[in-house]
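Fold this sequence, please.
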Amino acid sequence: MKNFTLIRHTTPNIPTAICYGQMDVDVAESFSIEAETVSGWLQSPDLILTSPLLRTSRLAEYLATQHRCEVRSHAGLMEMNFGDWEGRAWKAIARSEIEGWSADVLHYTPPNGESAQQMMQRVQSLLEELAQLSQQQIAIVAHGGSIRSVLAQLASIPLSHTLSWQIDFGAVITIRR
């Protein structure tokens, strides 16, 4: 049985009112302090998997250096693709689109983006790949949406049950199986 540690990236360098799912945003100036705190909570992983986005890969590389382990990038861990909404202020997105998404968060697809259900399918494929790895202690550095998807998959619950869960920047969640 594998043990997983899910880690949300540190604070991104972008205003809070901007949609930035797969937009490649760097980390805030507080990165070194936040990364050191996260490293202190992490127990010696055999492998770190990370989303390829900068805000996650920077933390993964830092943790891999601190804990002397391998880091691998995996696109399946990327945040939901918000398509045409990316980089826009939430209040600038058409109200009808936001209402459509709110009415069916799992299946609504933002223009040129992906639905939460599609993100779930990416994560499910990733977890199937992880089952084939020899490493037992795996740290995953990802995003709020992809972490909720991992948790839903591992707990065999609908993603909709996890949408209200608060997962702060730099959060560390350990799952022992």
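The CA atoms of residues 10 and 31 lie 6 Å apart. The chain has one domain: 3-175.
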